[in-house]
Design brief:
Layout: E1 3-6, E2 16-18, E3 21-29, E4 35-42, E5 45-53, E6 57-61, H1 70-82, E7 87-90, H2 97-100, H3 109-118, E8 123-127, H4 133-141, E9 146-150, H5 154-167, E10 172-175, H6 179-185, E11 193-197, H7 213-222, E12 237-242, H8 245-256, E13 262-267, H9 276-283, E14 289-294, H10 317-329, E15 335-337, E16 342-351, E17 354-362, E18 367-375, E19 378-381, H11 390-404
Parallel strand pairs: 8-9, 8-11, 9-10, 11-12
Antiparallel strand pairs: 1-6, 1-7, 2-3, 3-4, 3-16, 4-5, 5-6, 12-14, 13-14, 15-16, 16-17, 17-18, 18-19
């Protein structure tokens, strides 16, 4: 991650304008003044640069507000570095063309949401595509279909984006969104196939696994099925491929717990396209397990009424400011756990021009982070609200109740 260090905190003479960048102001953590956030505007986008003060001062992008391409972040830090005294070190080398160019095939969180809602061709998704060999082959062999790859490993994303350009593909898109959250937002019977190849087993933290009973419920809901709503060759499927027998058995048990399901199980299946890791495992005679879980019936879309428009703040700004001050006065900030969702107010940052509230909210196993900015008489989410799952909307409503309440207790 791009960053630089100084011997002490820098003033920068905010507000500061430089080219297309505007460094608006610095917000200070109300309970830990060694942590501050610098609000940066670049064209139509916003993000925070975090200032962390210890024996030296570190400047880097606040991870959950990062925007693409990474060159935008590097240039912003470079501007601040140039306005700093006593710089101890940095990794802000000149941007490569790749670091300054935004690929049209890399989707933001909001773009990914719109993509799965409004695609016009058959769509398949691969979760955790790694080197991308399988995903790239699918897109190459099926030019009249759409493909979406989900991955959190940045080098893997960059590698596949380069291959998309080299191969001239126009039907493959990439996103780093959490598959477990995105799946809740996909409409009924609108996904052709879903691939999960060699997922991390997470033996010590099973709640972090991609596949779970809840995940399978949504997979069966979103996959296409034939006219009779019964499994058939025309039915969509979830393809799990793993070298981990424990994970495979766990996923198979979860699938068989579904009310109606068809599962095809195979072992050491020969596929024409394999990853470099699978090729190595084959040489080592390691066993590979496959299962295809077919869509059995059309299920009700529990998310059909959820929209980003649910994330609004309608209260009186003065009342919201007073509520924020009441929260700041508390010895600890609220962490509220309900039956089906939670809301953690992680931190509040303050400046003469307003406040920033850092939130973690939503589902227990699929939390989302968000920043709410109160400035110039308006309360809003920075850049975009959380993805509209039932849990995040419920948590947002609880937060608005806290924020808009006149209760000073």
């Amino acid at each position: 991650m791009p960053h630089f260090h100084t011997t002490q905190p820098q003033d920068f003479g905010l507000p500061l304008k430089s080219g297309e960048y505007e460094f608006v102001c610095k917000f200070t953590h109300t309970h830990n003044p060694t942590q501050r956030l610098i609000l940066v505007r670049y064209k139509t986008q916003e993000f925070f640069i975090r200032e962390s003060v210890r024996d030296r001062t570190l400047y880097k992008c606040e991870k959950s507000t990062r925007i693409e391409p990474i060159g935008v972040i590097k240039d912003a830090l470079g501007i601040l570095c140039a306005h700093s005294s006593a710089v101890l070190g940095h990794n802000l080398s000149h941007n490569t063309p790749r670091q300054r160019t935004q690929s049209p095939f890399l989707l933001s969180r909001t773009q990914t949401y719109e993509f799965v809602l409004h695609h016009k061709k058959p769509l398949s998704i691969e979760v955790g595509f790694g080197s991308g060999r399988h995903l790239l082959d699918l897109a190459t062999q099926n030019p009249n279909e759409l493909f979406l790859g989900l991955e959190i490993h940045t080098p893997s994303i960059e590698q596949v984006l380069r291959q998309i350009k080299l191969l001239g593909l126009t039907n493959l898109y990439i996103s780093h969104i959490d598959a477990r959250i995105l799946l809740q937002l996909i409409p009924d019977a609108s996904l052709k196939n879903l691939y999960v190849h060699f997922p991390v087993p997470w033996h010590k933290k099973p709640h972090r696994r991609v596949i779970s009973p809840r995940f399978l419920h949504h997979v069966m809901r979103v996959l296409v099925c034939d006219e009779n709503h019964t499994p058939s060759p025309r039915s969509g499927f979830l393809h799990l491929r793993t070298d981990d027998r424990e994970y495979f058995d766990y996923a198979l048990r979860a699938a068989l717990d579904l009310p109606k399901v068809k599962v095809l199980v195979e072992k050491n299946l020969d596929l024409p396209i394999v990853s470099k890791y699978e090729a190595r495992w084959r040489r080592e005679k390691k066993e590979i397990f496959d299962s295809k879980i077919f869509a059995p019936l059309l299920m009700t879309n529990i998310q059909k009424s959820l929209q980003n428009g649910d994330f609004v703040f309608c209260g009186v700004y003065g009342n919201m400011v007073q509520s924020i001050e009441n929260l700041i006065a508390l010895p600890t900030l609220p962490k509220i756990v309900k039956k089906d969702y939670f809301l953690h107010i992680d931190a509040i940052y303050k400046h003469d021009e307003g406040y920033v509230v850092a939130l973690c909210l939503g589902d227990f196993d699929e939390p989302q982070n968000a920043f709410v900015l109160l400035q110039n008489g308006v309360a809003r989410y920075l850049n975009a609200p959380p993805l509209p799952t039932q849990a995040t909307i419920a948590a947002h409503r609880l937060f608005t109740h806290i924020l808009e309440s006149k209760d000073k207790s």
